[in-house]
Amino acid sequence: MQHTNTDFTALRTRMVKRDIAGRGIHDQFVLAAMSEVPRERFVPDRFRESAYDDAPLPIPGGQTISQPYIVGLMIAALGLQGGERVLDVGTGSGYAAAVLSRIADHVYTIERHGSLTETAVLRFSELGYDNISARHGDGRLGWPEFAPYDAIVVAAATSTVPDALLQQLRVGGRLVIPVGDSAQQTLLNIERVTSDRFKRRQLEAVRFVPLV
Ligand code: SAH
User: Fold this and answer.
1) N-to-C CA span, the chain
2) Does ligand 1 have an atom closer than 6 angstroms to the CB of 69?
3) Which residue from 173, 137, 172, 171 is spatially nearest to 153, judged by alpha carbons?
4) C-beta 92 within 6 A of ligand 1
């Protein structure tokens, strides 16, 4: 479905060069995946022309699709090499899950707004991204059936890291999550070093919608 003559491929290439690689993200898997996934298909029609601005955009349900740089930063922090099982909490538009699916073996994604899950599932199938499982539910509980995960990424902010997510992380795996209050959060990269030891590193100050 092409609404305009906009050359989205050229805009996507420019975005990856300028806003992702140009801001210090050099992970080749992330750059390749973000060069492939058509972000214009994950934003409401009226924002298509802005799909490659380095900005968050509104999506239904009062939610947002994250800024491309932040998606790149979070996924790069997971250190994926290909072949992993990844849990994505906060499907939203489905864009981050789509990018993850180009790198990982399988992506499990959870969203609390059922209508967003439905739209995302439709997008995945239109794009032929058949290694993503999506469900409507509370992501704070994780998705125990398919645990442990090699990596978990959370796109909504919380004051404390949900224990279920820590428990569903494989030893050696990483969880990237924004932690803080509604005004200010820090992106944390938490590695499960042993079954009961977690190493936390701070990435950047960020602003996400709340995990509720
Ligand atoms: N990764 C998304 C970003 C969406 S914003 C994208 O690429 O578009 C974060 C999303 O988290 C919102 O859609 C919000 O509804 C969802 N969310 C908030 N709390 C949640 C919870 N407890 N469980 C699952 N999803 C949640």
Assistant:
1) 34
2) no
3) 173
4) yes
